[in-house]
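Re: Re: C-alpha cell formats

Sure, here are both.
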Amino acid sequence: MQDREISTILSVRNLNVRFGRSSIPAVSEVSFDLGRERLGIVGESGSGKSTTGRAIMRLLSPSAEISAERFDLAGNPLLEKTERQMGALRGKEMALIMQDPRYSLNPVLTIGRQVAEAARLHLGLGRAQAMESARSMLQRVRISDADRVMALYPHQISGGMGQRVMIAMMLLAKPKLVIADEPTSALDVSVRKDVLVLLDELVRENDSGLILISHDIRMVAAFCERILVMYAGRVVETLTSLDDARHPYTRGLIAALPDPRHPVRRLKVLDRKALEAEAAQ
C-alpha cells in the first residue's frame, strides 16, 4: 500500500463539477489514478475533458462548484487548499500546457523575460541565474539560437516555437503533474509529432505524470499507456488499446476519423440513439 501511494501522483474519486445554478453537472463521477505514466483523456467538444483538467488545476471560474470524495496530488488534498496555496503549487508541482501559445504568452514581454520569470518564481533564482536557466531550458526544447529567440516577442515566433517556449516554461521546475490540453491542435501537422516527442522526453526525464487531453483518439492511443473516454461529462470507457473499444461512443469516435490506409467517400457520424440506449441501461 505504501509503494502504491508513493507511485500515485494524482488520485481522483467521484469528481463532480457544476456551474452556477445548473442542475446538470459538466463533469460527473469521474475517477482515476495517475502514476508516472501518460494518461489520455479523449472526447468530443463539451464532453468534459478540458473541464476535468482545469478542475484539477483549480482554474475554473468562481461559479464552478467542485466536489470529490478524493482529490489528492501526491497525498495532498487539493480541495482543501486556499487559492494562495494553489498558486504555490501551480507551475512548481503541477503545470498546464494550453493549446495555443498565442493566448498563453504575454504579448508585451520578450520570450527570455517570460521564461526567466518562471525560473525566478518557481526556483527562487536571481535575475542573472534565471536568465541563464531560461537560456538552458530553451536549448533543451531544441531552440538552437536561444539568445536570439530570448530577445523576440511572442508575435515574432512561429506557433511550433511558441509551444516549445510554453513547454520550457511549464517544465522548468520539473512538476510532478503535467496536463497538456490539446497541445498540438493549433500547430501545423508537420510539427505536431516533434512537439509530442519533446513533451514525452521531458516528462520521462522529470519522472512526472502526464495527462494528455485531446479529441484525436488515434493520436492519444499512439502516445499514451491508458485512455479515458469521456461522453456527456462521464468516463464511459478506459482503454489500453483501441482494439479493446466496446462502448458505442468510443467506436463512433474511431470510425469518425479519416484513415488514409482505408479511404472512404463519406465519414461515419456518431449514432446518438445507440448512445442514449447505452446510457439508459
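Second one below.
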Amino acid sequence: MDETDKTEHYQARIEAALDRWLPDLDTAPRRLHEAMRYSVLGGGKRIRPLLVYATGEALGTDPEMLDAPSVAIELMHAFSLVHDDLPAMDDDDLRRGRPTVHKAFDEATAILAADAMQPLAFHVLSSDPALTAHPGAQVTLVRLLADACGSEGMTGGQAIDLASEGTRLDAAELEHMYRLKTGRLIRVSILSAAACPPQPDIEREHALERFADALGLAFQIRDDILDVEGETDVIGKQQGADEARNKATYPALFGMEHARARVAELLETALAQLEPFGAGANYLAYLARVIAERDH
C-alpha cells in the first residue's frame, strides 16, 4: 500500500469511528446533535488522527487500540475550531469551504455543540472496548489530552493569540504561543500512540517528543504562510484573515522568506528524530513532509 492509499485507508477508518461515536441525528436534542455532526464530519484532512495511526505503525501498535485516541483528539480539535470561529474569537464565516457552525446554525448552538464534544472525547477514551483491558494506558491518554487542551496548552495558546493582536512578539514569544495553540494537539497525537502497548523505550519516546515539537511549529508557520499566499477556495477559509485582524504571525513579524526557511529547518529537525525507527516510520516521515509543504 503506497502513502496515498494508506492515507485514504486511515481517513476512512477515522470517519467510520467518528460516525459511530457521535450521537445519532434521531437522538434528542436533534439540533444540537446535527451541529456536532456538521462540525466534525464536514470534511478536513484528519491530520491528527493520521499522525496517531502513523506513529502506531512506527511502534507496531494494533490500530484497534488507536481508534479511541484518534477519535478523542479529532473531537477536541473540532471543539477548538468551533470556538475559534465564534464572533468573540476570530469571527470567521468560512471553515473547510463551507459556513462555520455559528453561521450554519446559530451562535448559541455552536457553543453548545463544541461544549458537548469535549466531554465526549474523554468518554471515548474511558469507554472504548479496545482500551478497557489497559487501564494504565487509559489514564495516561486522558491526562495527555487534558494537559494538551488546558490553560497551559491549546486554550492558553488561544488566549495569548487574542491578547497579541496588534502587538509585536519576538521569535521566542511567538513560537511559545504556537507550541501551545497548535503544537500541543499535534504532540498529543504522537504521544498518545506511544502511550498504548507496546510502549517505546525512553530514548525512542524522547525522539518522538522532539519530532512532535518540531512538527507542531512547522504546521503553524506553514498555516501562516498559506494565510498570505493561499487561495480561499483551496485553503477552505478566508485568505488574509490574519492580516485583517493584525495578528502576530511569522510572515508578518519576520517576513515570508524567513518563515519558509524556518519551516524547512523544522522539517529537517523532525525527520532526523525518526532515524531510530527505521523503515517503520516511513509513513510518519511522509506525513511530516505533507504538513510542511501542504497548499491547504
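The CA atoms of residues 214 and 266 lie 5 Å apart. The first helix runs from residue 3 to 21.
- S.
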